[in-house]
Every structure is written in C-alpha cells, then in structure tokens.
Design brief:
The protein is mostly beta strands and 100 residues long. The chain is 13% helix and 34% strand. It contains 2 helices and 8 strands. Strands 1-2 form a two-stranded antiparallel sheet. A two-stranded antiparallel ribbon has the order 3-4. A two-stranded antiparallel sheet has the order 5-6.
Length: 100
C-alpha cells in the first residue's frame, strides 16, 4: 500500500501479530513521521513506553527488533537463589605452551 503524507510517498508495511496481520499508517508527528504499534503487539513482545528498538531495512521491509539490554546488578541478585554450581570443564588436550 502506498501512502502520501505532506507530498511524500511512503510504503506501509504490515505486522505479523501471531495468526493475523495488522496494518499501520504512517502519520505526521511534529516535523517527523511515525507509526503507532498496536497494544496487543506491544503486550506480546513485552514492550513499554521508552523502550529502545533497533530499526533496519531487510528485503524492502522495515524491521524493528528489541534492543538487547544487560540486566542490572539488582536484577541479577534477585534471580540468585543462594546456590553456586561448581563443575569441572574439559578444555581438551593441551595444544600449545599451556602450563599444567
């Protein structure tokens, strides 16, 4: 589908949200243009206001991906259950000048 906004032509792409397709329109947003992502898609992907997405073009399509976010120390500590797993790891036979 082709949309004209302020004498500029845009292609509108569809989102595959599970078993159905949803279409969004590009709208004027101040001096820029933007789309609104439907609530059900935001919920399925656990996206919230101010989350950062990576955007790129692949095969004539606009692709948005959740940005990888490192866990904070507090988040990691909350997941810690007090147990430390220690195990031996087989690195294989020495192949260089390793000190044994």
């Amino acid at each position: 589908m082709i949309v004209h906004i302020m004498d500029i032509q845009y292609n509108v792409y569809t989102f595959e949200g599970g078993n159905h397709m949803e279409q969004v329109a590009i709208r004027a947003w101040g001096n820029s243009q933007g789309i609104r992502i439907p609530k059900d898609i935001l919920e399925k992907l656990n996206l919230k206001v101010s989350d950062v997405l990576d955007i790129e073009i692949e095969n004539d399509s606009i692709v948005l991906r959740k940005q990888f976010v490192h866990k904070t120390f507090e988040e990691r500590l909350a997941e810690f259950n007090g147990e430390i797993s220690v195990c031996d790891f087989d690195w294989g036979e020495p192949v260089g000048r390793e000190i044994l």
